[in-house]
Amino acid sequence: MTKYTLLLTLIVLTFSCKKDAEKPLESTEKTSSKYVEDAHSYAQPNKAVVTHLNLNIGVDFDNQVIEGQANYDIESRASSKLILDTKYLEIHEVEADGKPTYFELGDFDEQLGSPLIIEISEDTKQVTVHYSTTEKTEALQWLNPQQTADKQHPFLFTQGQAILTRTWIPIQDSPQIRITYDAKVKVPSGLMAVMSAENPKEIVANGKYEFKMQQPISPYLMALAVGDLAYKAVNDRTGVYAEKSMIDKAHAEFSDMEKMVVAAENLYGDYDWEQFDVIVLPPSFPFGGMENPRLTFATPTVIAGDKSLTSLIAHELAHSWSGNLVTNATWNDFWLNEGFTVYFEIRIMEALYGVERANMIALIGRQDLTEEIEAFRETPEMTKLKLDLSDKNPDDGMNSIAYDKGYLFLRTLEEKVGRDKFDAFLKQYFKSHAFSTITTEAFVDYLNTHLLEPNEVDFNVNEWIYEPGIPENQAVITSDKFENAEQTLQTFISEKSIDTSLTTNWTTQEWVHFIRNFPEGMTAEDMKRLDDAFDFTHSKNSHIAMVWYEQAINLDYHDNGVDREIEDFLIRVGRRWYVSTLYKAFKRHDKVDEALAIYKKARPNYHSVTANTIDDLLGFKS
Ligand code: BES
Ligand code: ZN
Fold first, then answer.
1. I need a labelling partner for 240 at 20 to 30 A (CA). Which of 192, 359, 530, 531 fits?
2. What does the pLDDT average to over 219-247?
3. Which CATH number covers residue 22?
């Protein structure tokens, strides 16, 4: 941290305009360790804060329990209490500097869990909590062999974001906390354990693994996966983990990983985490990807066989800067993580594959944004970038607004100030805020003083961030390829016949656009003709299949075995974005009973994150 503080000071001193010079240096602000109010954590880090975690746990697949000790280095500011977040954990015993100390669990809240209040003294240096997880844990998904690719061994993975780490480790679970960690993890012999840390590359016979994470990370980035895994390097700092039957496919699909890291570094500065690996998880993983430091967790649905969905890898890589290095201070500031990451993702894709591909990805997001704004028409305050999620689940803010409105804001800003200035600004932003957290307000301040004022640019920043909807001055994104896809579709429909030569060399993005933009009056018969020509129903590309299934539900299309494929897809895949799109389509068309019939079979395969969302959507009570 000092390295960066010093750098920042030098930069501010060297380049400061008059206005800056009159202000207190930002470096003093940064080191004053003031944590802001976080409605989603009980921790009171301004009083006593955890700085390092030493975890020693055993993973028991038979009982589906993680049990062990978490030992913390703490910095206390004259407090007699250390407060940790917990949820659905059993706390057996707590020690302060090696001696048993008094602790209590406060009232339970459905969303936040219970504060673990631990008695300490002013000079307490370390606290140890002996604990175990319970069957209610929300972070962990225990999979039986049937739910894996190889069907031989069980599998376990964690998902911490947003506030689930507290369900497998007692922790100060606010994104503004930063900890380094060591871990000892014992797993059944024959399995490999990997974490968001320095990782093994081979299975260790006795099942004992040791980990180190030397860069301070936010608690939501603590992560563990255990299974019969193999590793295959792309080069000396990038590579993939997967089950054996998946490893070669994954390796081929992600062979541009190192190029992505180089492109990212060229844009916004050094990759600060040494290693960038991806683990391909079983299909129930609830997200496309999760940016766990050094080891991105990814869904196998990203493997299309032609690298056409790997913008997801660019996205998770981009989080190594926006999110992991410079972190949203609270979940109300989530757009700072995701909006910047989408912007950065699309810049990486542009650098690797050209502006046409980048614009297609951007346009798909632009359409998602229009749909999301429409979905929030009764609650327009949810379309602000800066949210107020107090007494809401942080998950409520995790939608297209943060991602795609965030992106559109940054793209509009880039066009206004010019790419060179914008890139220099972003590079400096990441450098000066590295390994720290930022609120929306602090970002606006930084933007004004480091980009807008020095360049005398007038920009409606406040409208973009603090008002609902999309401002008038939004960047306009276009794609000739998408326009062509729309025209081709029109031709197919009006001529009631399909000339497949018009679609040669189409990319996944064009197909997705083609399928999503069926015109008014399109019928199930039209879908049947398309399906006979292109066999979308059996597409191996998960994104194409998903949008096709959505239209099948929309237009009551039932031919070519599509109902069976939809059901199989919903049972096999747990990726929340995909499955919720399909269940929402059922609901929109008054087919909740059909949806529920499938959901009852699919739900046991879903991680809690997905199950909770779909429970709410379909009004399902377990
Ligand atoms: N960090 C998110 C996933 C996430 C968000 C988990 C909120 C929990 C709460 C990740 O980087 C992400 O955005 N994943 C997307 C990928 C995409 C936009 C390319 C996903 O999972 O679909
Ligand atoms: Zn993301």
1. 359
2. 98
3. 2.60.40.1730
Residue 234 lies in a domain: no
Please say if 88 is a catalytic residue.
no
* Three-state secondary structure call for residue 166: helix
Q: What is the DSSP string of 456-480?
A: T----HHHHHHSSS--TTPPP---H
DSSP state of 517: T
Local confidence band at 76 (pLDDT 50, 70, 90 cut-offs)? confident
**Distance, CA of 394 to CA of 308 (rounded, Å):** 31
* 388-440 pLDDT per residue, tens: 999 899 999 999 999 999 999 999 999 999 999 999 999 999 999 999 999 99
Domain enclosing residue 134, as ranges = 11-227
pTM (2 decimals)?
Answer: 0.94
State the CATH number of the domain containing residue 395: 1.10.390.10
Q: With residue 75 as reference, give the H or E element that holds it.
A: strand 65-76
Closest CA to ligand 1's atom 7: 398
Q: Do residues 279 and 355 both lie within one domain?
A: no
Tell which residue, 376, 367, 327, 328, has the closest CA to residue 512.
367
- Alpha-carbon distance of 175 to 220, in angstroms, equals 7
Confidence band of 21 (pLDDT split at 50, 70, 90): very low
Single out the catalytic residue among 231, 403, 429, 583: 403
Identity of the amino acid at 369:
L
Q: What is the pLDDT of residue 598?
A: 98
pLDDT at 561 over 70: yes
* Catalytic residue status for 316: yes
Residue among 374, 368, 373 at smallest CA distance from 517:
368
Cβ(322)–Cβ(305) under 8 Å?
Answer: no
Pick from 437, 466, 495: which residue ends a domain? 466
Residue 153 and residue 297 in one domain: no
Q: Does pLDDT of 27 surpass 50?
A: no
Q: Per-residue confidence at 15, pLDDT binned at 50, 70, 90?
A: very low
Q: Whose CA is nearest to atom 3 of ligand 1?
A: 290
Q: Which ligand is nearest to the CA of 286?
A: 1
Contacts of 491 (CB under 8 A, 6+ apart): 499, 502
CA of 290 to the centre of ligand 1 (A): 6
